[in-house]
Write a structure and sequence with these properties.
This protein is mostly helical. The protein has helices spanning about 5-20, 25-55, 75-90, 140-160, 165-205, 210-230, 235-260, 265-270, 290-325, 325-340, 345-355, and strands at about 65-70, 95-110, 125-135. It is about 65% helix and about 10% strand. A three-stranded antiparallel beta sheet has the order 1-3-2, with helices on both faces.
Length: about 350
């Protein structure tokens, strides 16, 4: 895959997301957003086919990966769920980092050891914030960031209320719950379609089609290599070594058990340990009978813990009940169904939109 091809796909993705964000026509905005997901899947399948061909011919494919901080702070769990679903669909890895940011209304940073605070900023005022980190191929990372910004902007546009209220939080949680379910369903549907096409190709005597599920797994492994600073292929190699070692240990255990050795002793021997010497059982100590005062103290303590636990559970249930009974939460779920994600796009319409 040439660098110019990569730049072209990135430019097309940016154009599509600009169309989806700035278009007042909801139908065309949905087409643009859906086309991005479909384009990205096809692009990654093409890259995988090229890499597989290069490996077969003894060539090395240079892959550009990057780790990027997505703009904005992570303040709620729904933001993490949405980013995890998008990154997973777009062949990326994501996590949340805590970082120190300047803030005149914040507290003092107590030294360079705290959240990577630079030494020259020690004792300056600031605050700790959570930020999304996305890792993957350059084009996949950009697509994830674009889609995340598009979904956030669309949800806030449809919210029609003060974003700092509890009702706004309920709306966003309901919307993200539906969006995440749709994103996972979209991925499973696409994997099933590719698998069915592979079966049909095999029936015709054709081979070489890469399964989407295998591509996701391969990208997860390569992203893990990049994050840990390992040579590409290290995660796959180590997994194969661990699996081979486990199979060998299980074979030894089965052989020892067949010779009449107990399962417990066979485990120790198969792992290269000596069988532990078992001391003769010592007679159990006689327990002193519990005094009435000790029993009353114990029962009082247990009852107190039970009350605190029940109070905490009731509080959590009441919080969930208020959320589910909220009209804002229900409206958010409805909006989650309406935001465009479907990759089944009219090719002619989408072509006119990006030409």
């Amino acid at each position: 895959m040439k660098a110019t091809d990569n730049e072209t796909i990135i430019q097309r993705m940016k154009l599509l997301m600009e169309l989806s964000k700035n278009n007042n026509n909801a139908y065309e905005a949905e087409l643009a957003a859906g086309k991005l997901q479909d384009m990205l899947t096809k692009h990654n399948m093409e890259i995988a086919q090229v890499e597989a061909s290069n490996v077969k011919n003894g060539l090395v494919t240079q892959v550009t990966r990057e780790k990027r901080t997505v703009f904005g702070f992570v303040r709620a769990e729904w933001q993490k769920r949405l980013m995890n679903a998008l990154a997973g669909n777009n062949f990326c890895m994501t996590w949340v980092n805590e970082e120190w940011r300047d803030d005149p209304n914040g507290r003092k940073c107590w030294g360079a050891f705290e959240y990577n605070c630079p030494s020259e900023k020690a004792n300056d005022k600031g605050r700790v914030v959570g930020v999304h980190i996305v890792l993957g191929r350059e084009d996949n990372v950009i697509a994830t960031e674009l889609m995340y910004e598009y979904l956030l902007e669309t949800m806030y546009k449809r919210m029609n209320m003060d974003g700092r209220t509890l009702e706004a939080e309920y709306f966003l949680e309901g919307c993200v719950e539906i969006l995440v379910n749709r994103l996972y369903a979209l991925r499973k549907k696409k994997e099933a379609e590719i698998k069915e096409r592979e079966k049909e190709a095999s029936a015709r005597g054709e081979c070489g089609l890469i399964l989407l599920s295998d591509l996701y797994s391969n990208e997860d492994d390569l992203n893990a290599d990049f994050r840990n600073g390992w040579t590409p292929g290290t995660t796959v190699r180590r997994r194969a070594e661990y699996q081979a070692r486990d199979r060998e240990i299980q074979r030894k255990i089965d052989e020892l058990v067949a010779q009449g050795i107990s399962q417990n002793d066979a485990w120790y021997l198969a792992h290269g340990y000596s069988v532990p010497v078992r001391n003769p059982e010592t007679p159990a100590k006689k327990e002193r009978p519990e005094s009435p005062s000790a029993r009353r103290i114990r029962e009082k303590s247990e009852a107190s813990r039970a009350r605190r636990s029940k109070k905490k559970q009731d509080k959590e249930r009441e919080k969930e009940r208020r959320k589910y009974d909220s009209s804002a939460y229900r409206n958010g779920r409805e909006v989650g169904h309406e935001i465009g994600l479907d990759p089944q796009v009219e090719e002619g319409k989408a072509s006119r939109m990006i030409s």
